Amino acid sequence: MENQEMYEASAPVQAPDQQAAEMIKITFSRKLARAFTTKSGKDVVAISIPNVDPNDKSPWEEFVLPVTMVHSDHYGSKALWVKLPANGSTTLSRNFKPSEEGGEWTKQERVVDNNTLKSMVEAYKLKPKTQNAR
Q: Which residues on neighbouring strands pair with residue 94, listed in sequence order?
């Protein structure tokens, strides 16, 4: 067992003035995620955010993350999760279809902090549950 220290896990060493970044976990349905490859060849996932108001018929906002940041829950769950820095921000975009045929698509972008993003993505948790839901 001379090489036992080689197999022991050790915590990463951090400088005393450097603190670990606080992370927030965002959970969402697989149905909201759409994987695609960018023009430069990177694999990414676009995560859609449903509108909170059911009468709002505008397109859903979405944000894009690398595939390596999006993880699947274990045990066959239909949920995905991602961890983002709590003090960071994310760019949301919303595409609008042209009003006339042959027109150009327009894109509206805005930046939100990750705590607001978490509340937007997980807004479904605030809805009351129906009696006969499956």
A: 108
Instruction: State the residue for tokens 């993003």.
Output: 117
Reference 96, options 57, 65, 64; nearest CA is 57
Which parts of the chain register pLDDT below 50?
1-18
Q: What is the pLDDT of residue 9?
A: 37
Contact call for residues 96 and 106 (beta carbons, < 8 A):
yes
Let me know: does 122 contact 81? Beta carbons within 8 Å.
no
DSSP 122: G
* pLDDT at residue 77, rounded to an integer: 76
Where do the structural domains in the chain lie, given as residue ranges? 20-125
Say which amino acid occupies 6: M
